[in-house]
Amino acid sequence: xxxxxxxxxxxIIFATKEDHETPSSAELVAxxxxxxxxEQGLILPNGDINWNCPCLGGxxxxxxxxxxxxxxxxxxxxxxxxxxxxCVDQFRAMQECMQKYxxxxxxxxxxxxxxxxxxxxxxxxxxxAKEEKASS
Length: 136
Hints:
136 residues, mainly alpha, Helix Hairpins, two-stranded antiparallel sheet, 4 helices, 7% strand, mitochondrion, MIA40 protein, transport, CHCH, protein transport
């Protein structure tokens, strides 16, 4: 004989072998895209941007949150041939805002700049070597 009992916040269900032999009559409910407890990705099922996504790292809030949202929205909805090429002004405004708050939005330090310049130089040298080899 199956039964159920409550212990504090927990509900304990005892089921018999016969209970498991009968097919379930439970119906699955379709996922609710507006369910605040459902983990969503960056883009919601309806195509909107999920500003609460942890993948944004909190960029949508803070002193430059509005500029970030503006730039990111522009890029997301951009239909230009080079995606986002129509969003330069929004990204510039976001960058200018971030420069006002260096403690919250750290800029590249000298080591990062040096290593990226080294990578860029190596890439240019590799391209030149390929072109030279192809022309010979």
